[in-house]
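stage 2 :: seqdesign
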C-alpha cells in the first residue's frame, strides 16, 4: 500500500517538493496548499495536531489515522494543490513525489512534544519569521492553535529546548 499508517499511532510527516525539494512555492501557491490542507483535515484527518508549510516542503504531526484516510488526505492535499497550481500555470507538473515523503511513528510522549516543537518552529528555523513570537503571524503554520491547546509558554520552552539540543 502506498501510505502505510496504523490506527492509534501518531506520525511525523515531511513531504518535500519533487526532486528532493528543488521546486519553491510562492505565497500564492502556499495559500492553495493551505486551503487544500484545511479541506483535507476536515474531511479525513481531524487529528492533525500541527502543520507548517514552507517554501519547498511541509511538516505534519497527525494522530490516529488509518491508511485509507491517509491516502485520501494526501491525494486531496498533494493532488488537489498540484491540480490548481497547474491549472493556474497551464502546465502538468507533479510537485510532490512519493519518494520525497518521510513518515515516522512517534512512540513516546516526549517524542511527540519534540516533533510538535519542531513542526511549529520550522518557519522560524528557515528564516521565514524573525523571532519565535513572530510565528503568531505566520499563516502557513498552526502555531496559534498549538499554543492554545498546550500553552504558549510551554510551546516556547519546547522550541528553545529543541534548539539547544540541535546546537549541542
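stage 2 :: out
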Amino acid at each position: 500500500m502506498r501510505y502505510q499508517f496504523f490506527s492509534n499511532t501518531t506520525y511525523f510527516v515531511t513531504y518535500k517538493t519533487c526532486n528532493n525539494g528543488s521546486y519553491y512555492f510562492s505565497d500564492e501557491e502556499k495559500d492553495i496548499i493551505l486551503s487544500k490542507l484545511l479541506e483535507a483535515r476536515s474531511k479525513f484527518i481531524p487529528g492533525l495536531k500541527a502543520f507548517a508549510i514552507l517554501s519547498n516542503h511541509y511538516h505534519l504531526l497527525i494522530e490516529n489515522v488509518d491508511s485509507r484516510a491517509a491516502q485520501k488526505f494526501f491525494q486531496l492535499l498533494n493532488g488537489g494543490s498540484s491540480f490548481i497550481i497547474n491549472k493556474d500555470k497551464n502546465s502538468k507538473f507533479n510537485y510532490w513525489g512519493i519518494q520525497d515523503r518521510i513518515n515516522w511513528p512517534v512512540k513516546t510522549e516526549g517524542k511527540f512534544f519534540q516533533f510538535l516543537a519542531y513542526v511549529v518552529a520550522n518557519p522560524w528555523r528557515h528564516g521565514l519569521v524573525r523571532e519565535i513570537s513572530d510565528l503568531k503571524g505566520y499563516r502557513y503554520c498552526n502555531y496559534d492553535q498549538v499554543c492554545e491547546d498546550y500553552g504558549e509558554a510551554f510551546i516556547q520552552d519546547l522550541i528553545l529546548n529543541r534548539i539547544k539540543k540541535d546546537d549541542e
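stage 3 :: structure notes
- The two ends are 39 Å apart (CA to CA).
- The chain is about 50% helix and 20% strand.
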